Structures are given as C-alpha cells and as structure tokens.
C-alpha cells in the first residue's frame, strides 16, 4: 500500500491542486498558480459548415471553458441520471434513493424551515390578509407584528417593487443592528449590500479586483469551488495557500507570506485574501489569535480581506466560538483606515438553511467613497436582489426575542437543528475514521467532513485507465453501488498525491445508520478489490 | 434656435452615442464602436501611503470603471437626496414628493400585484397552513389547488432548497407549456434557464460570447443600458445600429448589414444581435415582416439572436401584436439547425410588474449540446435562482383559466392595469407633443416614452458650463423644479446632436394631470429662460 504523505516538509516540496484539471493532474509545484492563459485552441473564428451558428467550444469565451464547479459537476450529473432511472423503473438499482451529500442544501434532505421566518415571508407576500380575522388563527402574533414592521420599512409597502440597489434601507438598519449585537461594535447600514445569496457578492468583489491574470487572489486549499470558478470567470490567478490537515486544517500565516512573495516574484499582484471561517469543505473554526494574525497580515500587505462567514451559526464544539473578522479587527483597534474588509453572509446556511430563497449580504468596510460608488454602480446594473431574500436576511439577523410569542418554538426549532447537526457530524466523523485507510478531521463547524482516503496503486491505475482522478473514481463507484453522492477532493484542491472527498453532515438522523452501513460495506469491498 | 436634424442622409454622416461619456460627447462617426480598451491611467499598482488598501480608481478593474447604468445614475442619486430632504424637512422644496419616472418599476408607483399570484406565493412560502380550515376563508380555492400542484413538483416539497440549476423541472414544464400556447410551436423545458430576473440571463450570454474587445454585439441605439453595461463589464465592443425615429423607431436590416460590415472591416467579429421587442426605451412593436428579415439576417450571418421579449404582454395599440422570435423563425420553417436564438422573459414587466421578486427565464434554442453544457455550468456556479421567482415565472406563463374561481378577478385586474397603461401612454404622449420643441413617437408597447427635445444654443452652452450633457442638464433642472425624475437620452444612446429623455408611463392615473401641469409649466419657463 502507498504510504501516507504525512511529513510537512515533504508536502511543502510537492504540492499541487488538481481541481481545475480533473482528468489531468498538474505537475507538482508548491507555488503552482492558476492563471487564466487563454486555451491554445480557442482563437479560431471559422464557422463549421452546415451549423446554425459559428459558436463552438473553440469560439466561446475561454474563461467560461476554464471554469469548473465540482459540487454540481459530473458526479452530480450521474446522480441525477440514476435518480431518473429509479423513478422510471423502481428496483433498477441496488438502492432505493439517491442520498445527496454533495451540497449544503439542508431542506432538500428534509430539514424544516423555521416557522416564524416562513410566517413573516408569507404575510409579506400577501399583505392583504394581515387585517383579516382568520389570519390571527393561522399566524403567530409576533409574525403579524413583524410583517407590519417590515412593510412599513418598504416605500409604499411594495414588496413587488425594485428596491434601492443595496437593499431596502429599513432592512439594512435591522441587519446592521444584528451585526452590532453579534460583534459589540458599530455597523453602518450603508456598508451593507444585499444580494441573491452570497455567490453574487463574491462575484462582484472578484469583478472589482481582477483586471487580468496578473492579479492574484489568495485562496485556501482546499477551498469552496465558487472561488476558483469566480476567479477563472474573471480571468485572474488563484494563488493557493495550504491548510494543514495534520493540525486540523490549520492556517499558518507564514504560508500566506510565502505564497504572497512567491506570487510577487512571478509578477502576480495579490489583491485579496479569501478566508472561509468556519471552513468549507474543511469544517475548522479559526482561533481568535489566528484571526488577529490574519488581520495583521492583510493590513501590512495592504490587501483586501474577503471573509466568507456564511457558516457563522454553525459551530458544534464548545471550545470554539465564531468571531467575525470585523469584530477581531475592531477589537485590535483597527478601523476604516486600517483594513479593507468584506464579510459575506447568507440565509442558505446556519440553522435556517434557506438555500432556495437566495438571500445574503456583504458588509463592505475600509474602502474609499469612490470605490464604494463603483460597487454600487455594479449592483445597480442588476437593479436589486429579491425582496423575500432581503426580508429573510433581516430575519436571520434579528430572530424572535425573549417574550415574543414565537420565541420558545423558535428556540426549540433552532437548537433542535443545531444539536442534531452536531450529532450527525460526530457520527459520520467516527464512521469515516473507522474505515480502512481513511482519516477524518473533526467538523468543528460548517456542514461538511473532508476525509482523506489512502488509495492503493491498483485503484489509482484503475482510475487512470478510465481517465478519472482516483478520488473521482472512488466517488463514482460509491454512487453506483450505494446511491450516496460525495464530491471528489480534486474539486476543492488537495495536496498532491493525497485524495479526499467532501460529505455533508445533512442527511436526516434516522438515515445516518443506513448511510454508514452502506458506506462501510462498499468501502470494504472496494479496498478488497483494489488491494495491492 | 437650433434646427432639427431630420435628414436621414445627414444623420448617417454624423452619428455618435454619448451614453458612455455623459459629460464628454464623442467625436462624431457613424461607425463609432464602444471598445473596452483599458483606460490609460489604470496600470499603476502603487499603494497610496497612509491608506488602508492599495485599491484606488486607478487600480480597480477598468471594465467596472467603464460601465455605466443611467437608469440608476446621477439624476436618480440626486432624486434620492431630494427625497431625504423632503422627509427630514417637509416643505423644503416646491413639491411634496419625488415622482420616479426613471425606471419600469410599476409597484413602486402604486400598481397592485395580481391577487392570485400573491396567494400562491404566500401558500408556497408557508405550506403548513394549506390544510387548515381558516385558509379556505383567506385564499381562493384555485390558489390553494395551484400551491399543492407546485409543491408536488418540487422534490420533497422543499421551497427552501436549492433547485436544479436551470430551475425546478415541473415549473419549467409549466412554462414550456405556456410558451407553446403563446406560439403554437413546441417548447422544450430543457431549453429553459430560470434566472433572478432577466438581467443575469443577459450577463450569462454576454459572458459566453465575449472573449475580448474584438468581439462585438450589435445593439440598437437607443438601447436599454443593461446591454452597454454588460458588454462593458465583459470587455466586448458594442456595435451600434440605429433605430429610425422618423419612422417610429424603425429597424432597418440594411443598417444592420452596414454596421456588421463596418465592424468586420475594423477586425470586430460580431457574435450576436440584440433586439428589444417591444422596444425599450423606444416603445415600438416590430412588424412580423421586419422580424422575418431579422431572423434571415441572423441565419445568413451565423450570429446569435438575443431577443429581449420582457415586454411581450405590454402592447397598447390594436394594429400591433407581439410575436416571439421563436414563433417567427419556426413559422419560416427554421429549426434548431438554422438559428441560435435566446429569448429573455421576466416577471418584472407585463401587467404583473413583480420587479422585486426577481424572476425570469431565458429560452435557449439552436445551440449544440456542448455549448448548452457550458451555459449550465455557469448557471450552476450560482446554484439556482430564487424559488419564489421561479414559481412566479410559472404563474405568469400559466395564469388562471376560464372556470377557475380566480379567473374573473384575475381578468379584471389584468385588463384594468393594461388599459390604464394604454391611457397613460396616450395622455403623456399628447402632453409631450404639445410642448414647444418636443416631438414624441407613440408608445405602441413596453412602458416608456422617449421624446425628443430641441434645445437652444443658449441651453447647450449653459449645460457645457456645468459640464453636463444638454439632456442631463434639462432633466436635472426638471427634477429640482418639480420632483419629476426622467433619464437623459444620453444614457440610452441617441443620434449625435439630438437630445431625448426617457419617461415611464407608470405614474398612477390620478397623478398624471398634475405631472403634465408641472412638466408643462417647467418646460415653458425653461424654454423662455434659454431662448436664443
């Protein structure tokens, strides 16, 4: 069997990230940058005769071709195909259902929405029932009151109108107040840009920062592939820094410095640092000291800190607590003049898990008024984000309080979800660690486990023979045998020669034992089949 | 006074579009292309000392700097400031309220949503009330039935889950069926991509088509500035073609050909033609014959037809009817092999006017499977559009039918809105035409009038003195004097030396007389003040 590459020194000499080249691992180099050199075959304009259009893969924007997004990639496409087969012909596979563990999509796996949030949304969608007597019997008193409050914040009570391009001012006031409660430092509603989920906010910042492949963005490896995809689409260079699996996916500032200098020496101007806390796909929660070092690094280097804080409510271990980077920087005495910081938040994660509502915001601090105007202009081109998502963003930052009619039920729903997630994380972590050749760090937070799997030479050769990366090969075999959908680690980036997969902790608790059994059985037979 | 430039031959010799350079009219040239040459001052990377970040207007992405979006531009920013002043100090201006005629945002001006649509949305947001007896008293029977139908189309009835990246399959089935009813030709749900309003769909196509400033997109002048903004953000070249004001904003295919050839001679590869029908800001509805010529042109040249059909329900004159480009091309016998066609639709327009819901779709036909996969991949990076918007898209393409409980009230609401819009369009058109030096084409469709105003040399010089274009100068003066918000024609593009503004037809009918009076009084005093 192949030996684990556990030696950090050795790792630093031989690192690459395969995620943008699923079928063709890159040559190893610690400082490998993902630049957006146009593909060599992309410049022909010739129209193929007999076709309706001159458009071919050779003539579309090569940045689009280059972009990859693994969590909805080929494994998921295969899963959708299998699901259709199961529907058309029940019993056609050895499993009854597809278990989507590929994506942080809680409600698709049975998680129920928070009742209070949905009551308010329904009332804002159809305000003409607010005055009716039947409504009292159907909705909680505080949801009715909150709906009135929100409607009064919307000019003309028009929930069907475009809003200010940053979002409805009254809702931004509520969110800013929620941030103040969370952080203990002031928040300005004019710093908030409400967006359709966090993804468009990330794109907006990449669009602002990236001019060419000579502009680099420091991203963790492993990373959430929105970042590599967005950097590719905007034609920049992903400058990787490496989370240390051996220390629970630790982030070492010395590595940030090293990668930054290395990028500089190649003519890459690093413009921003992406930090995902709690980590996706890695589940670690940063320690306060570590966050201070990161802030200091960004301040010293004059680069923008892009803080992905969408999992701020998802912390499962008592010894760790979420601290926003804004709170950390303010507690260090740093203000607007010291650090350019963007914090991303979303209604899709947390205990709410309202992915389909596409709500979110970014808090933009430490930028000049002229730059802010440019961000506003780009936001205005798409007019505004959806109002239901805006309302929901205000609700998650201002949930029911002690004394409100819904408070007890809200608390029960919230804590029920979070404690169940913590149990599921632990059960799955233990299950992975009990598998031969698999090691799995704890999910301190977020919604994922990212176990490492040691694959035999025989398995690696079998993967090569079908032009797959070994981790994709394993995931495909797992899906075909069990209906369980994992995402290969190569979709997120991983140290060269190591293999991982990402698994969400989201399947409902009553399904976890069956998942563990199916996974364990499959894994055993896979390992036996490919033993060297 | 300056003479109207009515001679078409003269116009063709002297055309420019000012909309990307509000304060600095370009040198005249019929074939002026809007290319994305980087700004000369944009390459410095130096960090200004004493600042928190190296980010300045000189170091952000110059494509962002170049992008303009007039309908939320400087005039609107001024309007928001005046509104705040009015709120803080009532009576501080000579008017009581700001009248936003700048943007097609019906519900912000008091238009009520269609009751049935909102009932269904509310029920889908909070499905747990569907079974309750009180619900029967609050909601129409067919809205309850429709909500059940929709929930059954959503896997796990989870309206809070990410959907398929093209949108929920069952909703796409409904939309496809609605398109078939509209056109009389088949529609495939797999051709539909549901998006957060039409704007992200337009961006997605521009992203796919544009590789560099050597790629051109043929756009009407005047145009809706989403197009110029999106082309600028993606670094392409806007290749203008000119709608003929003298013939009711006629589109001449000979001009398309001329502009295409001219672009080719400059090394610009034209990849697509944008047609907005009904027209924005120009309000014309294309004749069927004209549409056939356009289809033939795209087929012959092998370029993609991007059909902005978001105003398909907004036609106000009996002699014109909306025909989709898909229907036209299919009725010509052209299929998938003959024409690459994208049709954009939105829930923001029509009689529904649900701008804040951010729903819409594009129907993509005549592209190879490999290109479609690339579009899907880009859609998947943002996961999916918001589910309420998806549901609403299905509702507008499948409203209540004869026999449904809501049918009569739905019809009354719909026809009330559309006939009122037709009356408002006519009243405002007549009002503009009664002003000295103003001529205004009929709004056959859409939501706007685009009157032309003849400004004196004195007015033009006064504008120059404050570094404004003459049309922006007029609009600013109008706003300061009356609270009425128009958008200067330079934001849309106009023939060199002519001046226009865009005015929506959306203010409520009872406000129109006051608007006309205020406008007329202002205009008279403006003309007197600046008489040569």
TrEMBL record, chains A, B:
Taxonomy, superkingdom: Eukaryota
Coiled-coil residue spans: none
Lineage per the UniProt record: Eukaryota, Viridiplantae, Streptophyta, Embryophyta, Tracheophyta
Native source organism of the sequence: Tripterygium wilfordii
Family: Belongs to the class-I pyridoxal-phosphate-dependent aminotransferase family. Alanine aminotransferase subfamily.
Entry keyword set: Aminotransferase, Pyridoxal phosphate, Transferase
Pathway assignment: Amino-acid degradation; L-alanine degradation via transaminase pathway; pyruvate from L-alanine: step 1/1; Photosynthesis; C4 acid pathway
GO biological process: L-alanine catabolic process
Family annotation (SUPFAM superfamilies): PLP-dependent transferases
Location of the region described as Disordered in the Swiss-Prot/TrEMBL record: 30-55
Cofactor (UniProt): pyridoxal 5'-phosphate
Name of this protein: alanine transaminase
Database matches in InterPro entries: ALAT1/2-like (IPR045088), Aminotransferase_I/II_large (IPR004839), PyrdxlP-dep_Trfase (IPR015424), PyrdxlP-dep_Trfase_major (IPR015421), PyrdxlP-dep_Trfase_small (IPR015422)
Molecular function via GO: L-alanine:2-oxoglutarate aminotransferase activity; pyridoxal phosphate binding
EC number of the protein: 2.6.1.2
Assembly: Homodimer.
Record has Transferase as a keyword: yes
All residue ranges annotated as the Aminotransferase class I/classII large domain in the record: 156-510
Signal peptide positions on this chain: none
